[in-house]
Amino acid sequence: MVKAVVLGAAGGIGQPLALLLKANPLVTELGLFDIVNTPGVAADLSHISTPAKVEGYLPPDEGLKKTLAGADVVVIPAGVPRKPGMTRDDLFKINAGIVKDLATGIATTAPKAFVLVISNPVNSTVPIVAEVFKKFGVYDPKRLFGVTTLDVVRASTFVAEILGDLSLSKDVVVPVVGGHSGVTIVPLLSQSSHPLPSGLAKESYDTLVNRIQFGGDEVVKAKNGGGSATLSMAYAGAEFAAKVIRAVKGEKGIIAPSYVSVEADASGSSALTKELGEELAYFSSNVELGTEGVAKIIPLGKISEAEQALIKAAIPELQKNITTGINFVAEAYKTEEPRL
Ligand SMILES: NC(=O)C1=CN([C@@H]2O[C@H](COP(=O)(O)OP(=O)(O)OC[C@H]3O[C@@H](n4cnc5c(N)ncnc54)[C@H](O)[C@@H]3O)[C@@H](O)[C@H]2O)C=CC1
Ligand SMILES: O=C([O-])CC(=O)C(=O)O
Question: Is the dihedral of CA 185, 140, 65, 19 positive or negative?
Fold first, then answer.
């Protein structure tokens, strides 16, 4: 029995993500929460002939609590998306408060759930969830994930394009590490399961790296004010959620990159710190998943000089984003009690 919950379920990501979770035969219950439209979305999905029983709630009448009751996996795509000209950090002002409130709901109703954060800026919203959980004394770093899967999905697609065969994209695996915004997105193309053409010009390599780092902007620009990636994000989010669910159900050896607290695995994190030459509280790296969430943080291993330079450029930005998230919660609790 697995209860999956989507918070922000009526949105551009929320709806297709809920559809894909409803299509997952391992999900037996699907809880949908949003400030609008969830009863309609739930009624619609409930007619699909798959096992999950679907329920949708709105804020009044303890809707959040009802949605979260008994949740095993909670995915959060609630919040505002970017418009052209904005960075992900520009979303912080609105999304930080939304994520803090939803995290409070999870901490008080489903503190053991695995929490998968999609809402941007992920580099800061994941620390926000952690800080809220700490205030309620229910924090387990193994159970908190920033969803960076879309970067991995994009890397697979763009590498397959360069190799001239899109049918390869489902098999191409490129670790993408760091965080989830611009220069903090670091593709380790030297570790691609399908090596790049040996004669690839430096300029083409740089273009590929830039496209993976700024793939989100490509979509924001094309949507021209209509938001950011939703369908590819729903696909990526459902893929990651499916991996977490399979691991929790006992499947061994499942590995996926995710933005996690380095506290989730002490030995992995000290190896990572050595590699980075810097202590970071959160970092996206390949993670082995297990029944309790993060089983192991896998260090970067051998990377190229170009990748080392990319990581060096990512670290100060990541540090700043992490501190912003932590400070936001500390500030909020100066003037309010941590309660739902
Ligand atoms: N991690 C990643 O790779 C990606 C993250 N994102 C982020 O995901 C977020 C959502 O994007 P979209 O679905 O396109 O936006 P959207 O505006 O289409 O949907 C967001 C939904 O959240 C709901 N919402 C707002 N406040 C809420 C609250 N307090 N409780 C519950 N629901 C609430 C809204 O009613 C709306 O239905 C954005 O922050 C976006 O930047 C988007 C793409 C990729
Ligand atoms: O670009 C955005 O704002 C949404 C996002 O995170 C992505 O598509 O990677």
Answer: positive
Q: What is the pLDDT of residue 338?
A: 66
Identify the CA nearest to 22 among candidates 48, 1, 40, 2. Answer: 48
Which ipTM did the prediction report? 0.99
Q: Name the residue among 254, 230, 253 with its Cα closest to residue 241.
A: 254
Q: Is the pTM of this model over 0.80?
A: yes
How many Å lie between the centroid of ligand 1 and the Cα of residue 124?
A: 15
* Amino acid letter for position 138: V
Length of the chain in terms of residues written: 340
Sign of CA dihedral 263, 269, 272, 278: positive
Residue nearest to atom 1 of ligand 2 (CA): 216
Q: Are 32 and 55 in contact (CB under 8 A)?
A: yes
Cα 160 to Cα 166, 192, 335, 336, distances in angstroms = 5, 11, 51, 50
Comparing CA positions, the residue from 91, 117, 64, 90 lying closest to residue 244 is 117
Q: How far is it, in rounded angstroms, from Cα 205 to Cα 134?
A: 42
Q: Which of 153, 308, 145, 286 shows the shortest CA–CA distance to 216?
A: 153
11 C-beta closer than 6 A to ligand 1: yes
